[in-house]
């Protein structure tokens, strides 16, 4: 059973979706919300597999909702006419349907969701920690990304913010580096120094420096200095 | 070139020529009254002959010449004009040759050729200036025409934009009506009628710029009924329309645009919604229209609403010149847009373009 929630500010739009989803055998609508804050509470409470999410809502929009989630479940955007909003980010990981919603188009979108749930079911750990397959949503200005943890090669602390480096992008998120580290599955990232977390699978080369510390070279050529204390840690970790 | 600006430049040019001629001769030979008279006669003759040149340049045959031929023709015409001017001046002064110049005759080879060369040169310069100025005027005129055309085109596309239903609104409404069919079929039927009426109004089949306030208000009622099923309890409306006002004429879709903006920026984007107030009353010889919504003038939204207001301002200027006003202010936690239009109960003040 796919557990879904609907977030849309129009009651009739929610009614319409609920009605359409009633005809889909393997979907159960576990809740509805009329704005982003209610939606976040609902998602917290019900931990759904799928969000049917309106983009235009009062005060905060659908993208804001996603960027406030630690991990993003499957999402289907429902929108009346927001080509510009949808084009503004690489949405191949997220599907969208246009209002008025037709049963056929909804079924198509749900079929994609079924596929994705099937493939991620095996790799998804049961714990709350972020795995390489965990996805989260980043919004910076007009740009949005749905990022897979495995694609992030470096996370850098900038005060209370952190900068993510992935596929040539480097947006900031409002989360302290230590908070992010606490949420990561052990062995996924390595704390190289006070400022930087390095994706372990992205390390290409390790070279010792004169002062007994280490320098890591990532697959994309970026060099990261490991502090002396963390160098000791790194060596014991890899039994160097 | 306009005749008036030609006459002005022609007089100015020849006076300047006369002045330079007189003073340069005065420097060499002393400024006697003989010099003054001969210069004056020369200026008058030159002025008349060059006016003749203009007539010649205005002949259709000449106007149609290709550029190379035109230059050659103008060159020859200038020389002919130079010769002609010389001869006229000499003939005029010949009877006074003895008294004024102390010579038996002015017609010496030396005098005639040097004057022909000088005056031909003057005529060539005159022709060059004439064509340059004419060219410049034509260029300016083309620029002005292009500007006028641009603004007309802009107006046309503006009208097209104004008369369009916002697609976001359209699709949301249709989606809502789909759901409403399940819940309250009769209400859904009403909503479809509202949508049809609204669409018909935007089609503007009689292409009018002005409509009665009554017609516009009917359209706004349709629109608000449809917005009400989207926003439900979040939208409150209040109308304060004086009895005499519905018969007055206002620009089509203007008030609708203001209502749409008020809802979009003041009510739909607030969780708790807000109130929309519409006022129409007579203020001496003006129609006073006001649309208010709860909220603030938000700087982030000012660009888009500002553009909406700019468009309205442009339309008002086109329809009423400087007799209409629009302002946007913030009063008591409300965004207030006020429009003053000339009071008119017939649409003959329309200025169709």
What does this structure look like?
The complex is a heterodimer of chains A (240) and B (353). Chain A is an alpha/beta fold and 240 residues long. Chain A has helices at 11-22, 36-46, 62-67, 83-87, 103-123, 177-183, 228-238, and strands at 2-7, 27-33, 50-54, 74-79, 95-98, 135-140, 143-148, 152-158, 161-166, 172-173, 189-191, 196-199, 203-208, 214-218, 223-226. Chain A contains seven helices and 15 strands. In chain A, strands 2-1-3-4-5 form a five-stranded parallel β-sheet, sandwiched between helices. In chain A, strands 10-9-8-12-11 form a five-stranded antiparallel β-sheet, with no helix packed on it. Chain A has a three-stranded antiparallel β-sheet with strand order 13-14-15. In chain A, strand 11 and strand 12 (196-199) form a beta hairpin. Chain A starts with a strand and ends with a helix. Chain B has 353 residues and is α+β, with helices and mostly antiparallel strands. Chain B is 66% helix and 14% strand. In chain B, the strands form two sheets. Chain B has a five-stranded mixed β-sheet with strand order 2-4-5-7-6. In chain B, strands 1-3 form a two-stranded antiparallel sheet. Chain B is rod-shaped, with a radius of gyration of 36 Å. The chains are: A alpha/beta (240), B alpha+beta (353). The interface between A and B is medium-sized, with 18 and 23 residues.
Main attributes?
heterodimer, A: 240 residues, alpha/beta, five-stranded parallel beta sheet, five-stranded antiparallel beta sheet, 15 strands, B: alpha+beta, five-stranded mixed beta sheet, two-stranded antiparallel sheet, 11 helices, 66% helix, rod-shaped, disordered C terminus
Order of helices and strands of chain A: EHEHEHEHEHEEEEEHEEEEEH
Task: Tell me the series of helices and strands of chain B, N- to C-terminal.
Answer: HHHHHHHHEHEEHEEHEE
The main sheet of chain A orders its strands as 2-1-3-4-5
Overall average residue pLDDT of chain B: 87
Mean pLDDT of chain A: 88
Strand runs of chain A, count: 15
| Computed structural class of chain A | alpha/beta
**Number of continuous helical runs of chain A:** 7
Radius of gyration of chain A, Cα only, in angstroms?
20 Å
Our measurement of the CA-to-CA distance between the termini of chain A, rounded to an integer number of angstroms, reads 48 Å
Name the shape of chain A in a single word: elongated
